[in-house]
Amino acid sequence: MSFELWLTFAAASTALLMIPGPTILLVLSYAMTQGRRVAVASALGVATGDLIAMTCSVIGLGAVFLASATAFTVLKWVGALYLLYLGIQMLRSPAAGKPMLANKPDDQPPGRVFRDLATVTALNPKSNTFFIAFVPQFIQADAAFAPQAAILIATFVGIAGVNALVFALAANAMRRQIARPNVQMWITRAGGATLIAMAAMTASLRRAP
What we know:
Helix content: over 70%
Strand content: under 5%
Mean pLDDT: 75
Shape: globular
Radius of gyration: 17 Å
Number of helices: 9
Oligomer: single chain
Largest sheet: none
Number of strands: 0
């Protein structure tokens, strides 16, 4: 795998992970209610969940990728349409009237926070759709599949953990500002627009040679 191809994947992964979806909203919720003490547990939970989801997805990708270009194209469009659907849903949601963090969790030990975030992340359909539809774009057919998959998994999981940690620490430092309805509305609308942009990018990218 070339450095340029890896860098493109890292950039695309970062863009996806910055969208405030279910996982990040849960990270924010824990950080807002329990502070910095659960930040590391949150990051490790997200990383573990992504590791599970991405590994399971990529294991099945090898056969699909090598067997049928048509199946690959179908999966790509399913992913793009699902991202588009999520983006439209976020743009249409009444974020200004319903605070995102209204349902705050009770105080829980870091181990429980880790478990909750690992579960939510592993079962997040957006992430699984992304892995299935987007990862094949960065797999080169003329190179061994396993090493490339390992690099992509390690890259995504590492970025996911750092991203969750940054969100948790930032939320802890800016509790009052994030809790304001107008900020929540901005986050929701920005997330919706980013999802739609990601859908367009997923649909337009071509399979790596």
